[in-house]
Inverse folding.
């Protein structure tokens, strides 16, 4: 095994000399490669939609897309207005003005509904009239009193358009289902005939759903429009899944810009402190920038959008890529001071650190690739593109760093004859070596106690996916959503699509009666603070129509029992000019949309709640197909997918990394033992999560995968150098000392850069990102401590002294 490693290291030295000999040709090839990848960057997009968490072939997403194609988009913008009395003439006038201004100024709107144009169904003789509630403006107190009485008595207004106490009303903005991008009207369409009068037609392009950019424009317009209406007696709250999505997108953009600035500042500082050379700062920055941009260029090329979890990629790529450069440059500058021969220094540094850099890149990438099979699409993207980005950073380090070193004018400091010794870092590393090799048994005993205590607390970790509580408590969108959840009993829709499988199947009075009873049952359902605040379907329209056609009698607000009469009343409603029927039934009257309004809450809590709903539909509708869909189901399915794939991805990462550790060390027993300093930081970090009751969500569950990939980097560099010095001397204590004084320097700097690169996430607006950064940064610091103390202690215990140094 030692001979194989030596030959590989010699191969890296040969590569270094060839790169130096062909530096300009190599540079041109690398520039062309990088330019090709970076040319895709303009295609990069953002997608913070909830459905973006699922893969295109996920059945939940397929069902949801089919639902949207038939019944439209269920993501709404809710504008809630709090006032002492909704039925005040002055207030209603301002509500009408706001309603009309929103219709005029907000783009991509399909429909806006409020008390101003709420459906009011009534009959005049045999005529069914469907008009707006405020079709005739109340000019007198008597008119106003009549409208108030009618509105409060209408069950469809309660908890949808008006609160039960009459102090809050809503404006419901439903945006377009499809994007307007690329669907502009072609004025010449149909006039491009060929010689024989025929027209060549192409396959129609697949319609795209409304983009997050278009959604943001709509939400921004709502905020801009409502801003000047806000007053103590007209307090405006804006919420809804569309508004929450917009806030998430703004948070991602702001945080990414901030994190990149902090990361670059910390990297520049540590590089200068370590090397005190301009080249020692510029070269790593070049590698960082091209690695970072190449990763996002590949995402753009493959159509992968930036989503919430993928915002961690910049800090990950920046931190890892600088680590590779530091390990190579540290040996290069050390050799250059001794030999004053730049080409030999390049070749030797590549031979010394090339294999370790490749192995660290492969193991880090393996830790990320292990989550590329995740059922949660953006987590899979982090694994897939993060892994490729790491490998590109390795390639750029192995090829581009030697090229830049060969081209740039770098002066040797050999004139100083020797380095300045006994620095603070030297004293620190010497102290670490004395402790770790002098007290190996106590160190291992303390470490195993910490690991055991952490294992005890790991089962106390809870799963959670409550995106609303990721926002700070004083965030406007969180305040608005929590208020509307409480006052209007929910802000999120779940739909049950009832498919009869035949045309006019919804004329069946028995089926309609069951649907009506289901709505009543669902409004009584409550479990773990989750409830159905409102449930309605096509039966509401039918009961309204039946009442109106029977002299507006209250006792006629029921489902007719005659199939022909049902068909006739549906036809009369369709002919009334209202298009409300489209939200509840397809054109063939074979599918119905039963809507449930629920609070925006933890997706994990929804598990038992949705199971109860499914159980009801399975029992009550054995003769038809029922599919639960909507944004609430998407949120639940996301977390369920993440939990199911987490254990599998961790297992893959451990197997791959263990294999490479055994391959590097060449001994199975020591290879497995070397996994202890790799796993200890992860286990302790998870124990910290359990102790402080930090939930395991879509971000924090990435900590283990990313941290184990990063932690193993330092272990590989330690073991690579320890093995080298142990073979030279046979003395494990001396080998540890030399390892810490060489690789230990770079390990300290890279760990500082890595941890700071993630600690900056603690400044994120959303606390899920903040906790992720804190936990990952902590895991990296623990990994450094493990490689400074546990690794040396293990190597001293399992390796006997053979030589006489």
């Amino acid at each position: 095994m030692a001979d194989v490693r030596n030959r590989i290291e010699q191969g890296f030295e040969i590569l270094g000399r060839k790169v130096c000999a062909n530096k300009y040709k190599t540079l041109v090839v690398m520039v062309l490669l990088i330019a090709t990848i970076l040319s895709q960057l303009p295609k990069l997009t953002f997608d913070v939609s909830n459905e973006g968490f699922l893969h295109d072939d996920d059945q939940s997403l397929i069902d949801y897309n089919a639902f949207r194609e038939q019944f439209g988009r269920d993501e709404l913008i809710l504008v809630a207005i709090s006032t002492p009395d909704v039925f005040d003439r002055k207030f209603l006038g301002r509500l009408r003005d706001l309603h009309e201004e929103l219709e005029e100024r907000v783009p991509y709107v399909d429909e806006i509904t409020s008390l101003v144009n709420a459906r009011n169904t009534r009959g005049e003789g045999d005529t069914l009239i469907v008009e707006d509630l405020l079709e005739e403006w109340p000019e007198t107190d008597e008119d106003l009193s009549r409208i108030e009485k009618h509105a409060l008595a209408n069950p469809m207004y309660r908890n949808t358009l008006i609160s039960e106490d009459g102090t809050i009303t809503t404006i419901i903005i439903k945006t377009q289902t499809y994007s307007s991008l690329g669907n502009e009207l072609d004025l010449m369409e149909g006039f491009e005939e060929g010689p024989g009068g025929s027209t060549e037609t192409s396959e129609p392009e697949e319609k795209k759903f409304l983009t997050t950019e278009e959604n943001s424009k709509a939400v921004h317009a709502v905020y801009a429009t409502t801003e000047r209406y806000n007053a103590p007696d007209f307090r405006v709250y804006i919420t809804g899944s569309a508004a929450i999505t917009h806030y998430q997108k703004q948070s991602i953009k702001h945080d990414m810009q901030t994190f990149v600035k902090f990361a670059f500042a910390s990297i520049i500082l540590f590089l200068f402190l370590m090397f005190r050379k301009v080249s020692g700062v510029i070269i790593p920055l070049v590698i960082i920038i091209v690695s970072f941009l190449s990763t996002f260029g590949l995402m753009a090329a493959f159509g992968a959008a930036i989503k919430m979890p993928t915002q961690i990629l910049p800090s990950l790529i920046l931190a890892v890529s600088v680590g590779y450069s530091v390990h190579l440059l540290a040996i290069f500058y050390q050799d250059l001071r001794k030999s004053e021969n730049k080409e030999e220094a390049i070749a030797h540094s590549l031979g010394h650190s090339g294999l370790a850099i490749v192995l660290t890149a492969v193991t880090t990438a393996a830790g990320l690739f292990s989550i590329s099979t995740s059922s949660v699409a953006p987590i899979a993207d982090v694994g897939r593109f993060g892994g490729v980005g790491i490998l590109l950073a390795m390639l750029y380090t192995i090829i581009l760093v030697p090229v830049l070193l060969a081209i740039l004018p770098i002066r040797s400091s050999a004139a100083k004859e020797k380095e300045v010794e006994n620095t603070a870092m030297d004293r620190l590393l010497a102290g670490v070596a004395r402790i770790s090799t002098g007290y190996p048994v106590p160190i291992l005993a303390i470490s195993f106690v910490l690991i055991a205590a952490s294992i005890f607390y790991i089962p106390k970790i809870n799963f959670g996916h409550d995106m609303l509580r990721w926002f700070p408590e004083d965030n406007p969108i969180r305040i608005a959503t929590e208020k509307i959840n409480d006052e209007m009993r929910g802000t999120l829709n779940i739909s049950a699509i009832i498919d009869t499988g035949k045309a006019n199947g919804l004329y069946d009075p028995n089926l309609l009666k069951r649907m009506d009873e289901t709505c009543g049952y669902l409004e009584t359902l409550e479990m773990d603070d989750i409830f159905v605040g409102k449930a309605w379907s096509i039966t509401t329209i039918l009961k309204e129509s039946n009442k109106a056609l029977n002299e507006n009698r209250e006792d006629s607000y029921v489902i007719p029992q005659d199939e022909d009469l049902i068909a006739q009343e549906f036809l009369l409603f369709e002919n009334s000019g209202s298009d409300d029927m489209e939200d509840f039934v397809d054109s063939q009257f074979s599918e119905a949309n039963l809507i449930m309004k629920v609070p925006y809450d933890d997706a994990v809590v929804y598990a038992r709640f949705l199971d109860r709903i499914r159980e009801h539909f399975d029992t009550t509708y054995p003769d038809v197909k029922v599919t639960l869909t909507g944004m609430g189901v998407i949120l639940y399915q996301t977390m369920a997918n993440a939990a199911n794939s987490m254990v599998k991805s961790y297992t893959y990462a451990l197997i791959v990394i263990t294999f490479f550790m055994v391959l590097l060390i060449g001994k199975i027993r020591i290879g497995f033992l070397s996994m202890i300093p790799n796993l200890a930081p992860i286990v302790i970090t998870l124990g910290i999560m359990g102790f402080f009751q930090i939930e395991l969500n879509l971000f924090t569950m990435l900590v283990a995968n990313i941290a184990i990939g990063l932690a193993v980097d330092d272990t590989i560099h330690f073991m690579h150098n320890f093995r080298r010095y142990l073979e030279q001397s046979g003395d494990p204590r001396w080998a540890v000392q030399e390892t810490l004084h060489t690789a230990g320097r770079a390990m300290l700097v890279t760990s500082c850069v890595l941890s700071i690169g993630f600690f900056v996430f603690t400044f994120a607006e959303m606390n899920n990102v903040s906790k992720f950064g804190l936990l990952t940064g902590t895991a990296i610091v623990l990994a450094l401590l493990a490689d400074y103390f546990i690794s040396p202690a293990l190597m001293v215990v399992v390796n006997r002294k053979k030589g006489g140094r």
Notes: Residues 184-202, 414-421 have pLDDT under 50 and may be disordered. DSSP finds 24 helices and twelve strands in the chain. The two ends are 24 Å apart (CA to CA).
